[in-house]
Amino acid sequence: PDARRVLEKLDPKDVDIYTAAKAYESEAKLTEPIYGTKYSLTEIDAKTLRKWASGPIDTDLHMVKPNKFIPRNFSLAKPTVDVKKETKDSPPVKLVDRQGARLWYKQDVDFRGKNWTPKPKLTILFQIITPYAEVTPRSEAASRVWVCGGT
């Protein structure tokens, strides 16, 4: 429901478009006071706004289905290792090692204290390599929406 409320606010009349390119250098008549960056402001004409507002909706763009992998239970699990013996230097355990995927696990022991209160922490690094993401402006935008929207 929250995502739908945000999407309902997306309206051409509220758009701000930022373009940075040498081709626009001559149009930049204003100067930002702190860094001295040259810029310009231009209103989008009413005809263009009407065209954007009445344009067809791309049927390939839609709300994604709920992700069953997003956790709903955020209670902390007990450590899976003896945290008194585990150190920051203990190596992670490789759980998956196959073509195209490797997955390691390491118990968080950084926050060991008097009562050892674990604190949730997660670091994920994905590298998606594909020659198709930048073939067209549409594929570029779609790949960025997918990558950013997946978080």
Please describe what this structure looks like:
It is built from 3 helices and 4 strands. With 151 residues, the protein is α+β, with helices and mostly antiparallel strands. The chain has a two-stranded antiparallel ribbon with strand order 1-2. A two-stranded antiparallel sheet has the order 3-4. The longest helix is centred in the C-terminal third of the chain and has 13 residues, at 137-149. It starts with a helix and ends with a helix.
Please write out the topology.
Layout: H1 2-9, E1 30-31, E2 38-39, H2 46-54, E3 93-98, E4 101-105, H3 137-149
Antiparallel strand pairs: 1-2, 3-4
Essential attributes:
151 residues; alpha+beta; two-stranded antiparallel sheet; 3 helices; 4 strands; 20% helix; disordered C terminus
